[in-house]
């Protein structure tokens, strides 16, 4: 299980991801608030993180990094924008995955397969299988 510092780091990273192209939209905000609740982070702490990000803390657990990458995939696809913004989001997501220490082959495969799923949402079992294959 991850500790509070890691949880705040994860949430801060997601907030930064949501803010990379513009202000956080309502759907993104609600999604992030839901993740905060899942992680046991109070609304007050969540609000504070929006304006005061914390430093990135690298997760030791490979499975936790995969879960976080999946959250970022979901966050990116909340708003179904097309064109240049989508391309920038994919690049940003790819870079976040690399920074987390995930294999570029797995990240690339997820991003490629994402296009074939409804709403570009890769099911968790498919995502886990992709990373398991590359990890072994």
UniProtKB/TrEMBL annotation:
<dbReference type="InterPro" id="IPR029024">
    <property type="entry name" value="TerB-like"/>
</dbReference>
<protein>
    <submittedName>
        <fullName>TerB family tellurite resistance protein</fullName>
    </submittedName>
</protein>
């Amino acid at each position: 299980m991850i500790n509070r510092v890691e949880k705040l780091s994860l949430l801060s990273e997601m907030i930064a991801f949501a803010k990379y192209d513009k202000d956080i939209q309502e759907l993104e905000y609600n999604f992030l608030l839901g993740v905060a609740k899942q992680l046991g982070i109070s609304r007050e702490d969540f609000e504070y993180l929006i304006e005061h990000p914390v430093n990135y803390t690298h997760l030791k657990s490979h499975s936790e990094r995969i879960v976080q990458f999946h959250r970022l995939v979901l966050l990116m696809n909340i708003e179904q924008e097309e064109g240049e913004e989508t391309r920038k989001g994919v690049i940003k997501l790819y870079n976040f995955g690399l920074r987390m220490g995930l294999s570029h082959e797995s990240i690339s495969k997820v991003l490629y397969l994402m296009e074939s799923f409804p709403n570009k949402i890769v099911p968790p079992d498919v995502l886990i299988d992709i990373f398991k294959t590359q990890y072994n």
